[in-house]
Amino acid sequence: MAKTRTFGAKVDFGKTASDYRAYRAGFPPEFFEALAERGWVRPAEHALDLGTGTGTVARGLAKLGMTVTGVDPASTLLDEAAALDREAGVDVSYRIGFAEKLPEASESVQLVTAGQCWHWLDRAAAAREASRVLVPGGRIVIAHFDWLPLAGNVVEATEELILMHNPSWTMAGGNGIYPGWLRDLAEASFVGLETFSFDVSVSYSQEAWRGRIRASAGVKASLGTAAIENFDAELSAILRESYTEDPLSVPHRVWVASGVKSS
């Protein structure tokens, strides 16, 4: 049986697979457009997507003509990724594996991506492995797509509720910026380091926002069944009483760090 990776002592994204597939918004089209405009995505080249989950980044790269392999330790997420690929009419290869010990041969890919997962990894080991599998001159792209808790908005209220139910959750109050990742790349001898970011609003129906939150690290990946049901009922009540807009407009930030393997 394939091993499902747990993150920390209690977080297991394998348990979120159905909600993850249905409700977690992938990176927006503007993200892939930005990669293409910079010349970082080239058709027919080989990309390796770390922590691919349900394949949101891998699928976007495949739509741009790349040959893509996605690696993730959770077989349940990869099953959902394959189903979504069939619906989208694209072909991505998936492998069970860990970013810190990749199954790929050395100097075998032109692009390594890590979307929404770098903070879960042994970052130094993952950066070294990315360098190993990249060809000289190949590029790594580390990206996040984060909701933004602003004073009085639905994200702030949702994060407060998560903390009430799961006080050990450590991801509240973020700003979507990760300067420490540049050090990860520099210490793995990547050069030409650069970053960019932009903000977008994502529309969620009331139901979809509840599903998105269930699929998060602080809820379905960490809590038991009864606790998840209680949390969801309370979030539903908060939305009905205080955030009646449907769909909700939820602010997000895309942030990217990138570097090149020296020749």
Description:
By secondary structure, this protein is of the alpha/beta class. It is 37% helix and 25% strand. Strands 3-2-1-4-5-7-6 form a seven-stranded mixed beta sheet, sandwiched between helices. α5 links the parallel β4 (109-115) and β5. The chain has helices spanning 17-23, 29-37, 56-63, 75-88, 123-133, 154-165, 180-187, 206-214, 225-242; strands at 46-50, 67-72, 93-96, 109-115, 134-147, 190-204, 248-261. The chain has a domain at 13-148 and 172-203 and 251-261: Vaccinia Virus protein VP39 (Rossmann fold). α1 runs parallel beside α4, α1 packs across α8 (206-214) and α6 runs antiparallel to α9 (225-242). Residues 48-142 form the Methyltransferase type domain.
